[in-house]
User: What shape does this take?
Amino acid sequence: MNKKDTKYLKFNGTSWVFQKRLTSAEQEYLGVQTKVHNKSLETDSRRDACVKRDAILLQLSKARQQNQSPQYSALIKKYQGYSNEELKKKLGDQGEFLSENFNYINHPEYRGGLEEPTEAEILEYKSLQVLSGDKNKNIIEDKYRLRLSQAFDALMLEKEDLPDKNKKTYARSIKIFLQYLNKDDVLMYVIDRFMIRNFITALKKQFEPSTIRTILSNLGLIWEYARDAERYKSENPFSKQGLPSKDKNSKYYLNWTIDELHLILENINNRNDKLPIYIAWYTGSRLDEIYSVAPDHIYVEKKTDIKVISFKPEQDGKNEYASRVVPVHKALEEHISGFNGWNRSSSNAYGKYFGALKKKLGFTDKRKAFHSIRGNTATNFENLKVPEHIANKIVGHKPRGDSMTYSYYSEGPGLILAKETVNQLPVL
Assistant: This one.
């Protein structure tokens, strides 16, 4: 911010005052008849005064557009035939309605049960005030009513050196918030913790925790900027909302449909590149676990004559349960036949290949990833009503509680039961 930037500002010895000669359109917008608008900004801080000034100027920038709007012109024409007495009565009724609504919304116990007055209702009040020659302060302008878009614009003016990428992130956060509210804009002082808690609940259905935290952080910074400018006394509603950390067990991934996976498989020419998908579907394994499998990790267990895949990812394993033996599904045998190692250098390399392919096929939702197949397997076990402790051991989930039943089934009856369970999975 330019330290010498005091345009439209005057210091009266105790506080800064906004002072500007008004156009006729701006007079009508503010509902005043004075040619020079003086408004105390109630601060001795030049920085705060500049922020308030910029926000007022943003409001006034809409005056010409609003003055020329068909809606405003229609209202002026509508009420021109009213007597002065009729105008003042209508003005009083409309003013009372707006005051009640604004006061109710601003009440500490307000919980979103009432919509804020619409721009049309506010515009009607302004037109009545102009026509009646009312010199009272506009009730809408008495209290500085900063909107989210205005706070954002003022913040961006100050942070003019902020990279465009960061500005776009802020703008995206605002867009998501306003879409949730189903509004084009929102008054800053209306935003409270109850509103944001419900907002977070809605976000959890669409985004991962890391993305939610970014959205809340961006909106919180804008709110704090407005608070510093307006001396809000309330706590930042976007902070300390108890957002959980990212669930490592694919809670925030979306399952694929069989048709979607078929489409992906149809577009893979290399048999070796299809195999990770099949292994993931029939074992619920992570990609790094799959790529840890060597040819000698696929063998027939002698005592039971059951073909198995041994997952022993060592350092790549997420936990001790990642190291396990899983019977080969009857439909998987044809796919692993002749397996002699992977043709890609690492699980990361395959992950990039898979990501590029799914994007090419139109699957742009980040929640649908290779890891989503693991969720498919867990869901399939759940639909089959497989006991949780057995399903957990097969897919490598940490079991709940202290149950160790079938915690080790590499031999005998346990392995037989596991094979019976795996073979219930639907064929891909």
In short: The chain has three domains: 9-142, 148-230, 258-422. The domain at 148-230 is CATH 1.10.150 (DNA polymerase; domain 1).
